[in-house]
Amino acid sequence: MPRRTDISKILIIGSGPIRIGQACEFDYSGTQACQALRQEGYEVILVNSNPATIMTDPEVAQRTYIEPLTVEFVEAVIAREKPQALLPTMGGQTALNIAVNLHEQGILQRHGVELIGATMEAINVAEDRALFRNRMVEIGEPVPRSFIVHSIEEVEQFKNEIPIPCIIRPAFTLGGTGSGAAETYEELVAACRIGLAASPVSEVLVEESVTGWKEIELEVVRDKNDNFIVVCGIENLDPMGVHTGDSITVAPIQTLSDREYQTLRDSAAKVIRAIGVDCGGSNIQYAVNPENGAYTVIEMNPRVSRSSALASKATGYSIAKVAAKLAVGFTLDELTNDVAGISACFEPSIDYVVTKIPRFNFDKFYGAKDNLGTEMRSVGEVMAVGTTFAESMHKALRSLELNLAGFTETPGRTCPTHEVLTKRLATPSRYRLTDIATAFAQGWTVEEVQRVSKIDPWFLHNLKEISDNELGARSVIAKIIENFGLKALFQEFEAGLLKRLKREFFSDAQIASFINAAVGRETATEGAVYAFRQRLGLHPVYKAIDTCAGEFPTKTNYLYSTYAPAREEYKPDDAKKVVILGSGPNRIGQAIEFDYCCVQASLAIKEQGMKAIIVNCNPETVSTDYDVSDVLYFEPLTLESVSNILSLEKPDGVIVQF
Predict the structure, then answer these.
(1) How far apart are the two ends of the chain, measured CA to CA in Å?
(2) Which of 111, 141, 333, 465 lies at a C-alpha separation of 20 to 30 Å from 237?
(3) CB 114 within 8 Å of CB 84
(4) What's the per-residue H, E or C state across 471-488?
(5) What is the pLDDT of residue 330?
């Protein structure tokens, strides 16, 4: 079905200022939407209040209003511009809430503006906890036992029926704002007070706790002809009880059987149909019982989200771009997946592993507790790609810029007693991965760590293997140096030991630390190991993110590195080129404004007839979109990774100030 011709001007609402739970991922989605709609000949009007975004650049929309995101100001823009349609699904919870208010106050009807991308009924049913629960019950989808309350008096009324322990989830909030957990009635009352105050409609869902179950997310897309695809399945390493924005996540899903996955896929199709989203993307979250595979539906976002940005970068399938075009009448079979040049109806298939780790800034708030729960607390995230879970985990940890060379104990952190470590593993915090590394270093078994942390054994076995590999590497290096000296070690490196260590995904910095620990003093450096490796011709292979596991040739240079045995999929040319180093994960003091600079630099370089190459590891950004630069390396911003890229590309210059 061709694009709609009864509308010509579309208003898009942005997400406003960056805050926890709503960050630059909506700049990415909004920019994609503006570009996609303009590509189809529509006049695009944008309202946003954040000057640091790409989407508010003059070239993105035909006209941009830098105004407060309130009903009053948005109505003024509508009255002035007279758009025929409003697309509210690209600006996070802020845009959805404004769209709801515009509808309820009769403003959209008065000005003849149609909601596209999601109907008001779909928004209300997905966002209103009571309506969503009831709709799930109607279609036979399992949900946790729950109660809806609008006051503390209602909490007291249901006192003897509310299941404890329980989770408190306010309606129409972002990033889990106001949510919490309760294990006693007193904690329940206190949590409900907070939740009711946070909800703009004074509504809270109190539901039976499924803490400890697996958490699974499906990023799905549906069009008005009922074509339905799962763009990406994402599994949380952390069990239920940690907000998905604060959880370490992995794609594709690792621990479900095919039968369990297909059951969730069928469920997601039922859910999106029942909610009524028929021209865009949605995020659906599930809890899965690790004992028997039983599942419950937790919630659904009828819009693009932080997970949508992650799924888009993980697969190369641009959810926001596709969703924007579906909103104006196209169907999936009429659209193309630009990365592979195939129909957008094809579900992405990936032959690599993606790991996302959140970035926290508790150090900026003296005395703040860093325990994690249902309310989001991270300020950014990194994404890494590898041929195996171990490789992507190592690379993600290095990308955090926290002085971590890989999966290891936190440098400088006090070594805990068994009792203290048990408490740490039982209470998720920003240190949970390094706490697990500490536990394995102290001789804990996988079963002991799992019993306390509730993390799935599959992940723990893989983390234990990384830990065992490190112990083995340290032991081999120490024995060679002890028995034959340092010179013999480098002879063994030449004979194949260094290649083995790199194929176990240890960084040059880690290998140098292994040598120094064996010698007992600072002898080797990361730079020295890199130089020796260069002399041996031991380099990583660069493979493409192509959305189709190599079934079709990719049309873009969207790359990741691996030391695993693999075929080289990218060869640089001799064109003039400039490498731009991105700013890595968002954090307090370094956020979206640097992404803006990277994008502008890339565009300026291309205007000069040179190739622009971007290196970054932040999946929320516009700069890590495949079409912003000529070549994109999704890699850690470390000395080793950047040096490998510069050695391969041999650029004419490097821009480092952004």
Answers:
(1) 43
(2) 141
(3) yes
(4) HHHHHHHHHHHHHHCHHH
(5) 95
Q: How would you class 265 by CB atoms within 10 Å of its CB: exposed for 0-12, middle for 13-18, buried for 19 or more? A: middle
Model confidence pLDDT, tens digit, residues 122-135: 999 988 888 999 99
* CA distances for 408 relative to 34, 382, 456, 463, 641, angstroms: 43, 18, 19, 10, 19
* Interatomic CA distance for residues 93 and 29, integer angstroms: 13
The answer to whether residue 593 is domain-embedded is yes
Residues with Cβ within 8 Å of residue 547, at least 6 apart in sequence: 315, 316, 317, 337, 339, 340, 342, 346, 348, 349, 350, 554
User: How far are the Cα atoms of 11, 12, 55, 175, 429 from residue 91, in angstroms, in the given order?
Assistant: 12, 8, 11, 14, 29
Q: Which helix (H) or strand (E) holds 616?
A: strand 611-616
* More confident of the two residues 542 and 338: 542
What distance in Å separates the CA atoms of residue 379 and residue 245, rounded to the nearest whole number?
Answer: 9
Element (H, E) at 583: none
- Domain match, 577 and 616 both: yes
Amino acid at 550: G
Largest CA distance in the chain: 86
Chain position carrying tokens 């899965």 = 288
* Peptide bond before residue 165 is cis, with ω within 30 degrees of 0: yes
- The angle at the Cα of 383, spanning 377 to 384, to the nearest 5 degrees, equals 145
CA triplet 597, 600, 602: central angle to 5 degrees?
110
- Strands 85-87 and 9-13 come out as parallel
Using one digit for the tens of pLDDT, what is the confidence trace for 42-57? Answer: 999 999 999 888 899 9
DSSP 199-226: -TT--EEEEE--TTSEEEEEEEEE-TT-
Distance from the Cα of residue 67 to its chain's centroid: 28
> Average pLDDT, stretch 506-534?
95
Same domain? 326 vs 240? yes
User: What are the structure tokens assigned to 287, written together?
Assistant: 């809890």
- Tell whether 353 is covered by a domain: no
50 assigned to some structural domain: yes
325, HSE (Cβ side, Cα atoms, 13 Å): 22
- Looking at residue 627, what is its pLDDT? 87
What 8-state DSSP symbol labels residue 375?
A: S
* 3-state secondary structure labels for all residues of 74-139: HHHHHHHHCCCEEECCCCHHHHHHHHHHHHHCCHHHHHCCEECCCCHHHHHHHHCHHHHHHHHHHC
CATH assignment at residue 188? 3.30.1490.20
* Matching residue, tokens 């992995």: 250
Angle at 68 between CA 67 and CA 70, to 5 degrees: 125
Contact between 602 and 629 (Cβ < 8 Å)? yes
Q: Which tokens sit at 191?
A: 């949590």
Mean pLDDT of 371-388: 91
Gap between the Cα atoms of 346 and 541, Å rounded:
27
Tell me the three-class secondary structure of 12-30, residue by residue: EECCCCCECCECCHHHHHH
Please give the backbone phi and psi of residue 158, each rounded to the nearest 5 degrees, phi first: -100, 15
Query: The domain that contains 15 carries what CATH number?
Result: 3.40.50.20
> To which residue do tokens 């993105």 refer?
60
